[in-house]
Amino acid sequence: MVSKKMLDLGNIRSGIRDIYEYGTKLAEKIGVENVLDFSLGNPSTPAPREVENTIRHIVTELSPKDYNSYTSAPGDKNSRLAVAKNLNARFGTDYDENNIFLTCGAAASLNIIFKAIIESEEDEIIVNTPYFPDYKVFIEGQGAKFVLAKCSDDLTLDIAELEKRINVNTKAVLINSPNNPSGIIYPKENIEDLVKMLNRKQKEYAHPIFLISDEPYREVVFEEESPEFLPNLYNNTLVAYSWSKSLSLPGERIGYILVPKKAIDYTDIFAAISGSARVLGYVCAPSLFQKVIKECVGVKPNIDVYRTNRNILYSALIEMGYVVPNPSGAFYMFIKSPNSDGRDFCERAKNYNMLLVPGEGFGMKEYARLSFCVDTQKVEKSINIFRILMDEYNK
Ligand code: PLP
């Protein structure tokens, strides 16, 4: 009656949503102020004032026809050009509107890319553990094999592990830096090693291996260190970007795909991206927000609260003896359970109305993920609970 494949993908429970729904019910019972809900990655800071002012300006000064209409499939030319110019100024590139395809956020960008490049069900796309759980649904949904490569103990890319997974069917390697769930930014040398290895493997198999860079957190970084701009290092890079997190617009659905001219068969890739977006029914990215992006592409996100939360949590957890990498970006902490059982850790936290997400959905069952895009007060309240939990384990 229905597609078995879609049924199976639809029935994969989202660990994140499950905990979030549990938290919503709990909040109805005991009051939202008493639930320390660290489950979802919904930005807690509102969209920057410039975004609000631009929306106000558009809806008061323009006719609804100007901002409610269809645009061309890749998006309004001037909006795409604004994105291209912003990238050129930051990364010394020479992009124009023909390199940018505006989308309904990173999830759309990724699905469009996967559908555009997958040629057969033998094709494989490699993802590094820990990973954003929806990757599995997206990759399998678009008809390729989902292949996992474990990261090193410090959660940076393990190039030797990755290399072992590459074979004649490898279509792409997907990376995400800053990473959800670890907050790690893959260091420059790590990326350089990846690029060397991929270039070697492309030669060996005599076909392109795409590097797909999923970058919704590019702008959410706490240190000087920022993620490498991969198209400048590896020609066959495709970037999936989103303003969901950087401009706190997750419900508005706006992002882009960058197809650099240096990518092999650039013209065909861009055409296949257009075909894929059409088949998936995206039509065009939201028209009003294409206009917002044209004006706000250079606006810096306000990440002060995330940085404060990160600092409070990280120093407290390390002092208590938890194993946790210090997130350089995004707004997640990936905490190792003291008994290496992430689910047990989350269940124990629930007893104190503190909600974390078990790491198994991210491919590492020893861990739990905490989203610190919340009010700082909640982070402060959590410290005592983490101490009680550590004492329980040490008994
Ligand atoms: N990729 C990663 C790593 C994410 O964390 C998310 C959302 O949390 C997405 C993609 C999807 O983002 P978007 O809202 O832009 O579709």
How do you describe this structure in short?
This protein is α/β, with parallel strands linked by helices and about 400 residues long.
Structure description:
It contains 14 helices and 12 strands. It has 395 residues and is α/β, with parallel strands linked by helices. Helix 7 (134-141) links the parallel strand 3 and strand 4. The relative contact order is 0.16. The model has no long low-confidence stretch (mean pLDDT 96). It is globular, with a radius of gyration of 21 Å. The longest helix is centred in the last third of the chain and has 19 residues, at 376-394. Helices cover 44% and strands 14% of the residues. The strands form 3 sheets. A 7-stranded mixed beta sheet has the order 2-8-7-6-5-3-4, sandwiched between helices. The chain has a 3-stranded antiparallel beta sheet with strand order 9-12-11. It has a two-stranded parallel ribbon with strand order 1-10. Helix 5 (77-91) runs parallel beside helix 11 and helix 12 runs parallel beside helix 14 (376-394). The chain has 2 domains: 4-47 and 302-394, Aspartate Aminotransferase, domain 1 (Alpha-Beta Complex), CATH 3.90.1150; 49-296, 3-Layer(aba) Sandwich (Aspartate Aminotransferase, domain 2), CATH 3.40.640.10. Residues 34-383 form the Aminotransferase class I/classII large domain. This is Pyridoxal phosphate-dependent aminotransferase. Keywords: Aminotransferase, Transferase. InterPro entries: Aminotransferase_I/II_large, PyrdxlP-dep_Trfase, PyrdxlP-dep_Trfase_major, PyrdxlP-dep_Trfase_small.
